[in-house]
Amino acid sequence: MKFGCCAAIDKAEALYKAGYDFIECTVVSLMPEESEGVFKNILRKYKDSPIPIEVCNILLPSDLKIAGENVNNQRVENYLSSALERVHRIGADTIVFGSGGVRSFPEGFPIEKGEEQIAAFLSKATDIAEQHNLTIVIEPLNKKESNVINSVPEAVEWTKKLNRKSLKALADFYHMEEENEPLTNLYKHKDFIFHIHVADSNRFSPGTGTYPYSAFASYIHKANYDGRISIECNWRNFEDEIGQSLDYLKQHFSSV
């Protein structure tokens, strides 16, 4: 089991000192639509990180729609080509597909057409991902953040439908709790879950709320999951809480 944290690259030193195994940064921070000259300065920061960047989230900028009437397919393809190549260059191997705002269907938009658009996007993304030995994980989001793919079973259905080796599912404790999703799904769909996000009540740091971590950990253990777990939360005091949260996760998952 490896423990990481979703954070900006300038937090890498603090996470390293706290004992984390990796950091999960954002794809958009790599500025995929900017020139190579701009990226070189960004790349230097990632290469200097004392902790590995193994996963990237926030794949798409908020104005790059992939569903609805205003999809610019050429811009999407150009963006993906640049973004995934840059993710590979910073050393990450997994990309989280959340991006709830840009994947949501506009009100009244035909669901079937929207699903076709998401399928086309994921097909193109996985084509490029496989060129760089990357894995894309579909993140279910609660209904306040997206009106499509709101549970682990739904994410898994997409992986089955597209049937690509580079496409897996993510389980996010926060979104599962928001949707009252059964934790049994962690075991039922264990063959498709490739990455995990965790938080606690009100999306604060692990160990500060009332989420049923013992139950969550028991299903992770039952599923024989031995991959990565990233904290994705709202920190009240980052430097003070990161060590406590890591200790809390290790207490619950150390036997997994």
Please give the structural blueprint.
Elements: E1 2-6, H1 12-18, E2 22-26, H2 36-47, E3 53-57, H3 73-89, E4 94-97, H4 100-103, H5 111-131, E5 135-138, H6 152-162, E6 167-172, H7 173-178, H8 185-188, E7 193-198, H9 213-222, E8 228-231, H10 238-253
Parallel strand pairs: 1-2, 1-8, 2-3, 3-4, 4-5, 5-6, 6-7, 7-8
Gyration radius from CA atoms, angstroms: 18 Å
Give the class-level CATH name: Alpha Beta
Q: Considering the protein shown, what is the CATH homologous superfamily?
A: Divalent-metal-dependent TIM barrel enzymes
What's the order of the H and E elements?
A: EHEHEHEHHEHEHHEHEH
The percent of residues in helical segments reads 40-55%
Largest sheet: 8 strands, parallel, barrel
Distance between the amino and carboxyl termini: 7 Å
- Note the beta-strand portion: 15-25%
Mean pLDDT, to the nearest integer, reads: 97
